[in-house]
Amino acid sequence: QVQLVESGGGLVQAGGSLRLSCAASRSILRINPMGWYRQAPGKQRELVAAITSGGNTNYADSVRGRFTISRDRAKNTVYLQMNSLKPEDTAVYYCNAYGQTWGQGTLVTVSS
After folding, report:
1. Is 94 within 8 Å of 36 (Cβ atoms)?
2. Do the strands 57-59 and 46-51 form a parallel or antiparallel pair, or are they unpaired?
3. How far is CA 22 from the centre of its chain?
4. CB contact set of 97 (below 8 Å; sequence gap of 6+)
5. The predicted structure's pLDDT at residue 29
6. DSSP code per residue over 2-26
7. By three-state DSSP, how is residue 52 classified?
8. What is the C-alpha separation between 58 and 82, in angstroms, rounded?
9. Greater confidence, 29 or 35?
10. Are 79 and 86 within 8 A, CB to CB?
11. Measured in whole angstroms, how far is the alpha carbon of residue 80 from the centre of its chain?
12. Of 12, 24, 33, 35, which one's alpha carbon is 20 to 30 angstroms from that of 77?
């Protein structure tokens, strides 16, 4: 079973940027899909962005045009570039593989 480790969270002002990384314990070549989810306090976990093994991507409406999901197969890593951050983006962000396996999460806090 693949293990996922997220990093890159932190505190940023509104309008700023962060890049999250998700390192997998083995090749991501055939992991389909890989995605980023987030969970804000008192809210359900929601899909932010996903990427298939073929490279197709999809995004939540709330982040489309601001966030970009990408991957580096050589490093077994998936990234989430987050630009123009808003306070409502504050959440714990989780990496996901196959829709089943989760990382431990990384906290993103956006101050106004």
Report:
1. yes
2. antiparallel
3. 7
4. 2, 4, 24, 28, 31, 34
5. 87
6. --EEEE--EEEETT--EEEEEEESS
7. coil
8. 15
9. 35
10. no
11. 5
12. 12
